[in-house]
# Entry
Amino acid sequence: MIQALTALSLECDVKNGFALGEPFQKFGWTFFNIQISEKLAEIIEKSGMMEGALGFKIGEQMTNFIGHYLETKGSSVRIKKIDY
# Structure
């Protein structure tokens, strides 16, 4: 997942485009928070990368885009929500 987020940052030409919180376990799953920089979110939104992402609100579209992007890069993750 870190490699996928790094690739996304490079694709958008943004340094330090994300930060990962400390992982924690619950119910046999590992959870952690991902913080995407405002600059990275702005570039994703304005570049057209989210075109075709499902959702009525921009936050839903961003959640679906990030989740799909990570999956296409080989990360087996689920995005619960994005505060946008």
Notes: The mean pLDDT is 87. Helices lie at 2-11, 38-47, 58-72. The beta strands are 18-20, 24-26, 29-31, 34-36. Residues 2-72 form one domain.
